[in-house]
């Protein structure tokens, strides 16, 4: 029986299962072609690694593949309970440290640059290195932008909900949680999930998206409910990201923070170079800043810099016995 080898990490409490061996070879091509191949031909392996009994509903994974972009040190496909995402900031933070620790790039003090090709494009991770050991990681992602502002929908049981749509490597609906009667520290996580999922489903139905680079990027990944505040003066702005199939991010969400920064800058609430602080539903924190402005097709855009820390939590080898049907992966919803 074939064996899949993994190393588990977490960034701000959000898991990352990195595949280190056992996957079949992936045909050459663009990163989006590799993503399509894995989705269409190897999805049974995603279910094995992400679902029970080896994973859980909110598991997240990374498969390293051969890079295609010039200058990329490595390339990655992201996986979760629904399929394959286009960008994942918490994974980039973990993979930055992993790349240095595993010698995928030569370690240089005080900072090692790791160029990571993602389905959304090239992401540049900066890894702090001291005495040969990797520490905190920040990254600059692809151009992020506010796609649409001051939109609203009527949600059954909630009434009129105002929101923005922003892109930070993936598209998110951004809404204040108080509109749903929710309060960080008082409301249940389940209530945040239900509210965000309802918003995502309605926005998917009512608001078509487009991306200047590729149609494969033009889908709503999830919704981010915020708790007010702009993350200034050392007071973190709370948010929770509910993405894919109602999956809850334990971290502040790297691509989500990027999208929030783009929206804040477009609204005139954040200047280039200002650092803000963002806190997740489990109180882990990322820093975020606008590194510079740019353009993404017709959209005024930014390049954001987001930072955090990742930690190792284990390693494992997984296999499947031929007559183990449940071992192929299942979820209890």
Structure description:
This protein has two domains: 3-142 and 312-317, Diaminopimelate Epimerase, Chain A, domain 1, CATH 3.10.310.10; 145-308, Diaminopimelate Epimerase, Chain A, domain 1. The chain is globular and about 50 Å long. Strand 14 (275-279) and strand 15 form a beta hairpin. The protein is α+β, with helices and mostly antiparallel strands and 333 residues long. It has a 17-stranded mixed beta sheet that branches. The model has no long low-confidence stretch (mean pLDDT 97). The chain is built from five helices and 17 strands.
Mean pLDDT: 97
Write out the CATH superfamily name of the largest domain: Diaminopimelate Epimerase, Chain A, domain 1
- What CATH architecture of the largest domain would you give? Roll
> What characterizes the major β-sheet?
17 strands, mixed
Order of helices and strands: EEHHEEHEEEEEEHEEEHEEEE
Helix percentage: 10-25%
Over the alpha carbons, how many angstroms does the gyration radius reach? 19 Å
Strand-residue proportion: 35-45%
- How far apart the termini lie comes to 29 Å
What general outline do the C-alpha atoms trace?
Answer: globular
Q: Point out poorly predicted stretches.
A: none
Q: Would you report the number of β strands?
A: 17
């Amino acid at each position: 029986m074939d064996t899949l080898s993994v190393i588990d990490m977490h960034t701000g409490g959000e898991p990352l299962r990195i595949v280190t061996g056992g996957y079949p070879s992936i045909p050459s091509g663009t990163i989006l072609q590799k993503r399509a191949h894995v989705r269409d031909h190897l999805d049974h392996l995603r279910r094995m690694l992400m679902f029970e009994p080896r994973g859980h509903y909110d598991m997240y994974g990374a498969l390293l593949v051969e890079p295609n972009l010039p200058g990329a040190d490595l390339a990655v496909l992201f996986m979760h309970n629904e399929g394959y995402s286009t960008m994942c900031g918490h994974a980039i933070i973990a993979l930055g440290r992993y790349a240095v620790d595993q010698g995928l790039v030569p370690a240089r003090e005080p900072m090692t640059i790791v160029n990571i090709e993602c389905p959304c494009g090239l992401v540049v991770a900066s890894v702090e290195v001291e005495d040969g050991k990797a520490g905190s990681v920040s990254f600059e992602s692809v151009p992020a932008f506010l796609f649409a502002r001051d939109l609203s929908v009527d949600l059954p049981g909630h009434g009129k909900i105002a929101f923005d749509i922003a892109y930070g490597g993936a598209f998110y609906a951004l809404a204040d949680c108080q509109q749903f009667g929710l309060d960080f520290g008082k409301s249940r996580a389940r209530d945040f999930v239900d509210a965000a999922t309802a918003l995502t489903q309605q926005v998917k139905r009512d608001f078509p998206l487009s991306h200047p680079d590729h149609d494969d990027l033009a889908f709503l990944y999830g919704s981010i409910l915020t708790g007010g505040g702009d993350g200034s003066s050392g007071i973190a702005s709370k948010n929770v990201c509910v993405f894919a199939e109602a999956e809850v991010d334990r971290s502040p969400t790297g691509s989500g923070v990027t999208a929030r920064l783009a929206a804040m800058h477009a609204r005139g609430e954040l200047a280039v170079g200002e650092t803000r602080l963002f806190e997740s539903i489990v109180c882990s924190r990322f820093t975020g800043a606008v590194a510079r402005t740019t353009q993404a097709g017709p959209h005024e855009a930014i390049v954001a810099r987001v930072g955090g820390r990742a930690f190792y939590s284990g390693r494992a080898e997984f296999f499947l016995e031929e007559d183990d049907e449940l071992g192929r992966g299942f979820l209890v919803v």
